[in-house]
Every structure is written in C-alpha cells, then in structure tokens.
Amino acid sequence: MSHPAVDLSLLKPYLENVAHRGRTMLLPALHYAQSLYGWLPREVQVEISHALRVPQADIHGVIEFYTMLYNEPTAKKVIRVCEDSACSLGGCHELMQAIETQLGLRPGETAADGQITYEHVPCLGMCELAPAALNGERPAANLSPDAVPAFLEGRYPEAQGNSYGEPRHLLARVGKVDPTSLNDYRAHGGYIGLTNALQMTPEQVIEMAEKTGIVGRGGAMFPTGRKWRFTRGAPGTPAEKHIVINADESEPGTFKDRYLLEDDPFSVIEAATLAGYAVGAENGWIFVRGEYPRAFHRLTHAVEQARAAGYLGREIMGQPGFHFDIEVRLGAGAYICGEETALFEAIEGKRGFPRIKPPFPTTHGLFYQPTVINNVETMVAVLVAFNLGVEEWLKLGTAQSPGTKLFCLSGNIAKPGLYELPFGLTVREIIEMAGGVPGNKKVQAVLMGGAAGVFIGPDKLDTRLTYEDTRQANIPLGSGVIMVFDETADLRQAMYELARFFAHESCGKCFPCQLGTQRQLELLDHIAHNGGAKPTDKQTLLDVGFTMTETSLCGLGQTAASAIVSAIHLWPELVTAEG
Amino acid sequence: MSDTVTLTIDGREVTVPKEMTILDAAATIGIDIPVICYHPHLTANGLCRVCSVDAGWRVQAAACVTQVADGLKVETRSEDVCRGRKTILELLASTVNLEEAPEILALLEEYGADTERFAGSEKRTAPVYDDNPFYLRDYNQCINCWRCVQVCAEDAQYVFALSYDGRGFHTQIGTFMGDGMMDTTCVFCGQCVGACPTGALKPKRQALLEQGYDPDSIFEQTRRKRRPQNKAE
After folding, report:
1. Are residues A510 and B46, on separate chains, in Cβ contact within 8 Å?
2. DSSP assignment, residue B182?
3. B165 near A CB under 8 A
4. A-proximal residues of B, 78-117, CB under 8 Å
5. Domain A491-575 falls in which CATH fold?
6. Largest CB tally within 10 Å, which of A27, A85, A131, A463?
7. Per-residue pLDDT reduced to its tens digit, B30-73
8. Which of B132, B118, B54 is nearest to B89 (CA)?
C-alpha cells in the first residue's frame, strides 16, 4: 500500500493545543485528523498517540470500533445511504442501484481517483424523510433514483424536517427561529426559564423538576427529578460533577432529538444549564451522533454564542458562584454509544463498551464522577415545563403521564414526520392524524418504540399512548417511534433488517449479544432470502432471543431480540412456513 | 450497619461479607457456578455471562460481578438459567474452535449443549500468527475473554501491546495496525499465554513439542541472536 507522504505539520498545532487534556481528546483529534487527511494513516495515529499519551494499540482499537473512522485510504467525501427499516420501506434499494450505476462503485469502495467513497449505513435518523442519505455532511431527503445525479453533485436541496402536532411546546420554536441566532432565541422566549430558575434555590428547582412528572424520554423512563437529586446528593464538588446530554439518537425509527438539536439548539443549551444549576455541576457535555453533522455544527456555534453572551462560563447571568460550560462532542458511528456508560467511555477516548452497572452514573458517571445523563427531549421537556409553569404542564396529558411527547412517525404513512402530542391519544388516532396509510391500504403491523421495541398488529391500534396504558399492554413507548407497515410490506424482510442492525451495532463485549445478534441475523437472512424456515428455526430464534434478553450485559443486547420475538409470537408463520 | 448479609442460594441460607459477589458467596457453601471469562486474579468484566443466575430481578444477573444483598433469593440452576447457559455455550461452540479448552468442553457436556445447533453458520476465523519466537496466536480458538488484553494492560504489565480489531461478532484481539508482536510494545513476559483459557495463545516450544520436534531442534528454531550481532549482519 503506498500513499503520498503525510504532512504532519497540518496536525501538530491542533495537537499542541489539546495535548494537556490527554485521552479525552482522542475522538476529537481523530475527527480533526480525518478532516485533514480523509483517513487516519499510521504516522497520524502515532503522532496522536504521542501527543495525547494514549497507547498505539488503544488508538487502533478505537478506530476499529467506530465505523466513521478509517485506517485505510478513504475519500474525504463519503456518500452514506441508509439501509434500515424506514428507508427500506421508502425505496432505498432502487436508490442504491441508481447510485452504484452512476458511481460504478460497490458499497464500501472508494473511487480510483480517491475523491469519493460509497457506503450503505445503518439508520441515519431521517426515517420520516426516507429514503435518506448523506453526501459528506449534507443530508438529503426523499431521494428518488432520478435525483441521484443532483445528489452526487451536491445540487440536491438540503433535507428539511416535517413537524406537526398540537399544542407545540417542545417544538414551539422549531421552524420559527433562526437556530444560529441567540438574539432570535431570546426574542422567542429563550432564557426566561433559566432566569426564573436562578431566582430559586437549586433545591427548589429539583423539587419542581420532580413535580413535572417527567421521566426519561430516551426509553428507560427513569424519573428525571430523582436522577438530578441523586447526583446533587453524591459526594463531590461542582467541578467534579457533570451534566451529559445524550444526543446519540441512533435507533431505527427515531429522529425526534434531531429537530431540537438542529432547529432549536439554544433550548438544549439552556436546559443543560438549568440542570447544572439544580444539580450543582459545572461541566456540561452534549454527545451528538456522528451522522448528525449539521446538528453538531449548529450546537457548536450556539455554545460559542451563549458563552460570548455570558450564558455559559463563570458567574452565569451574574449569579455569584454559578459556573457552567458545555463541550459538544461528535460520535463516530456507533449506536451503542447511546447506552449511557458506553457514551462516557466514548467521551473518555475509549471503545464504546458499556460498563457494568451498578455503580450508576449518579455516583460513578463520566470520568467515574457524579453525572446526570439525560436524553435531549427529556432535558428540554423540563425546561418547557418550567417556562409553562408546572401547573399548566400537569394539565397536559394524563395524570400519570403528564405533558407532551414527541412521536416519530415513519414507514407506510401519508404524512411521516415528528408529532408533538399530549400523552393519551391512541395509536390509531395518531396514524389517522398523519393521514393514514397511503393507497387505502390496511395496516399490517406497527413497530412501536423503535428497533428495540415490539411489533403490534391491527388489534392493538386502540392502545392509548401513556406510560400506564403501554406498560399494561407490554408495549414500550421507547423513544416514541411509530413505524407503520402496510399490508403489502414484507415482514420477514423487516425482521431481517432489524437483526442486521443489531448485529452491526453489537459492541462485542458480552458473549450472548456479540454471538446471538450474529446468529439471529443468519437465521433471518436464511428465512427471508434463502428458502424460508427450517422446522427448528422458530425455537432456535426464541432461545437466542431469550438468552440475549436475559443475560446480555446492557440494554442493547437485552432488547436486540425484542421486536423479532414479538413478531414470532404474533405471526409464527413468518418463521415456520417455507419460502 | 452490619458487615454481613444473609441471602438464600438454591434454597440454602448463607451469611457472607456484604461486599462479596454472588459467585464467591455460592462457593462458600460449595455451590459451583460455572464461569468462562472470569479469573480470580483479574478484573471481572462479566463478559461470558455463563455465570448468570436468577436473583429475582428484571433480567438475570452475572454472578461474577453482582454483589450480594440481604434477603436476596438466588437460583443458580433454574430452568431459565440453564436455558441461557446452554444457548451461550452453543453459540460459542459454533463460533470458535474449543478443542483445547477442556473446561468449556466439560460445560458443553454438562449442560447438554448441541454443538451442531448452528451448523453451517459463520465462524470467527483468523490466520495463525507465528510472528515471534515465544508464542503462537491462533485466534480461531479465541473466545474474546479479554484476559490477555487485561494482563497486558492495567491488570498486570502496563505494556499495552494488545487491543481489538473490529466490533460485535467480528471482534478479535489485535495489535496496532495489525503489526507482528516483534514490532509492538510486547516485552514477552508471557502473562497473556498463562492467562489464556483456550489454547489460542500457546508457547511456541509447546506447539513444536506437540508437532513432534525434539528439544534440540526447537532450540535451533526459536533462538534469536543477540541484537548487536543482528545489526552487524
């Protein structure tokens, strides 16, 4: 392998600036180096190893872990086409064929002139805009094969979201404010919540957060106020405590946080600052998935503006002793980093292996220090409840599920998009609100909660979407995903695609998940594409699913079979009949 | 507060120090919970999950990394526990060559694992690396227990010669850019070879003896001239 000599002088000034921070700068340094060279040649890795004092083997391990980091020649411009569930329903296979024909490349290949690399990738978080793709950092929506030339040349319009719903509280500013302008944010009610909170004691703020009844909206449903209280009470000074915003939204079907990150980034920053005040934590972090470059740039810009205006830094808004700042971090292609402890590992410059819990993040989080980690929507919901007043917030939704929730509608539906709705509507009502199934077709199945959720059949469409109703019906609300499959959809293909996603995203730490996701994929590949099911397949899939669910180390493995097992119970013929 | 807790394991009450793991607590009353990745001298990472037991929680608990608690009721061999254990063993047997891992072979037998259940599925393969005079690396036999990486790093030697290639099913133990061991930071302390439970790491001398070479010819094959002489050549 030969390539032109690498000019390390381009990289050295950056490394000199960040060297004192050591290993936590590893992912940023690798991203920066890759922006210079297109990939990460050996001498670049050695240079980073010396500067950050990270063993070379560990750098290798990190690059090998994250799919958006390359240790072999790769073009600076990468075309990434989503291959997951919603995009598959939306026609990504025709799109892929058109791109392959035009480029003359197979997935994973780089053009001979080194100018372009082509990849099929897991969910890009644009399910409502299917089929979706990235040209470098530029997202593209609803790509038809005809649009391929424009897309490849960068002439295709940049993707814009579709958001709906009533009343709009979390999405109040989405589409209405200039996401690059702090002044515009303030003109639309920004920083009123924080101003009010600073009139209260941190203890009072936590009490209010508890009263909102808000629970984690990433899927785990842990009461947010309680999490804040635990972290506030953990031993440690504010300089040793962290607020981490989990913006690593990567689960097929899920795209809600993207709207807040891209279109209202200051609200995320204000919400984190509010949490910092309540918890007594000075360090804020926002970890954004690598496939959301636009969100990363807007957040980075917003953080700089907020800092310049005194909304971040020392003595925020003149409040004596209140210090808080935010660092925005970019992931590099690993769904597992949405698992909170794996996310910490990524910020610390390691492979995104989830940790054993307990201990929990509230006492042993980022850098093993007390940490609040909340999903983007969760954090913003608390801020919204503050702005609205807890009384008003509690009037929305139901008694046990107060407030509004963001629902991600995708698949075979007339108006896919992000819907902000109060808790309590039924699945059917929401599907009808989104225009129903196109072409007068019937609903065959709905994937609820996300790839880690469950399928339901038409008989469950009248389930009300509240925490209490879904718990009783054994349907995870998860991250609010509602993906519709019409009567013509191939559910075997859908099961195969979910299995492929989890096999691709298993970190490889614990045995049941690393081995089970692979075997689950192989069995479903055979069933969907190679002659149907063998008589033993159903039991084998159920045993593998049971084992992953019961014995895996983290939430990924514990839910990697959830949707598939649910489909087997609903439609056993999918994995028993031949052909 | 008391320094001990009382729990029930397989119907038997036991009182142990409160920081003990379920694995160790069970051992005090002669209950043997199977383990694969666990090694008493190394950091337990709960990787193989073969030690998973039913502690009455949402999902099973890995006994090697789960602390005991007062009043806990643990089942180490319930039907569900054995179902998971057997399946993990079957998955492992379909992936890796376990011929030289007698402890795992015994578990396969004990739990009635069907080693042909996933016949024809992808195995995790790699070339056999014979790149230094001290040991061979045959990752076809590697179960990813991490012991070698751990002893090479913070659990013992602080040499950091080993890390990982790939991710998920395709994770393998690797070196910086795939370099041979002579080009890494390896100091040939041999601790990784000693910690390996499956024969994936094997002393070269042992391998050659197994192939029928006599000690004199092995000495000829594996000795290296001292470095200054090498340079002079």
Report:
1. yes
2. G
3. yes
4. 80, 83-84, 87-88, 91-92, 94-95, 117
5. de novo design (two linked rop proteins) (1.20.1440)
6. A85
7. 999 999 999 999 999 999 999 999 999 999 999 999 999 999 99
8. B118
